[in-house]
Amino acid sequence: MENGLILGIESSCDETSAAVVKEGREVLSNVVASQVDWHRKFGGVVPEIASRKHVELINPVLEQALKEAEVSFEDLSAVAVTYGPGLVGGLLVGIAAAKSIAYAQQIPLLPINHIEGHIYSNFIAHKDLEAPLVCLTVSGGHTDLLYFKELGTYQILGRTRDDAAGEAFDKVAKVLELGYPGGPIIDSLVGEGDPTAIDFPRPLLTEDTYDFSFSGLKTAVLNYINNQQQRGEEINKADLAASFQQAVVDVLTARVIKAVKEKKVGKVILAGGVASNSQLKAELEAKLAGLDVGLYYPPPKLCTDNAAMIASVGYYHYQQGIRGDYDLNAEPNLRL
Ligand code: KG4
Ligand code: ZN
User: Fold this and answer.
1) Largest pairwise CA distance in the chain
2) Any idea where the Gcp-like domain is (predicted)?
3) Which is the most buried residue in 205, 213, 291, 323, by most CB within 10 A?
4) Is 90 touching ligand 1 by the criterion CB < 6 Å?
5) Same domain membership, residue 262 and residue 147
6) Can you state the angle between helices 47-69 and 88-105, rounded to 10 degrees?
7) Which atom of ligand 1 is nearest the CA belonging to 118?
């Protein structure tokens, strides 16, 4: 039906989610079934368990999303689904569900890049937000700096040359035996620590590039921990967390400021799981305010993986006439 109602499906990692969104920005439902309890005891997402859980959860989650939105399959204009990046087993579950619905209803199938979904959660949260703007996308798998001259297209300014920022958070937390996922735990520990206690490196900070690198920082943290242990000295976890997080925030902030000045934009948006980091938001907000630049980010519920953001991108693709075929396959390593 030509009413701008898009069903979104997301199953790329450890959340099974379905949502109904009207005209890209109005969320009628956004059901997220998290599997995090099933994976926590393994210290990370176990792909085989994730695939099996997605199979179990996809139908009830879809049913709930339609029920909450008070719509039926017949009301939908199109179905949007994450086809990458992510775990192949999980992606295939979402893609199979989306194809079935698209075929049964004879509506368009819209293949969506998960990372683009994270970005568009901003346009759900801030209804009047328009380009031009700079976007920092920081998640467990990606660290990208983008320039949107207008909505619907973007230019990649820079990306990580090795580890993603979230990956570094998770690895540091794992070595410190803090739990999983590491980002929020480190974030909450930081208040008790001294960010100047340990002088960790700020990779590429002085270079004239938009790129990032986090593997050197991660190695420096691991080396510090090993050295302390060899010397029999205790590790102050809060100081370490605060010093590590300060290094990450310094690098991310510097890149955004450089892009804002060079592209002369008045708005910055954040996307991805690391965008919920409290220090990153606070420091960026303060620095950007000095330049008269607004900072926008989605509320925590939209920062984590969810299908509403997938449906939102889907609407803009739908309007532009972008369509997928029934031979759509999962692309685990898909990039922006
Ligand atoms: O976007 P996301 O939910 O999943 C994908 O990677 O697609 O991002 C998850 C990442 C994890 O690495 C997690 O540790 C990190 O985001 N994260 C945080 C915070 N909340 C989540 N990192 C730093 N501070 C946080 N508050
Ligand atoms: Zn994600």
Assistant:
1) 68
2) 26-311
3) 213
4) no
5) yes
6) 30
7) 1
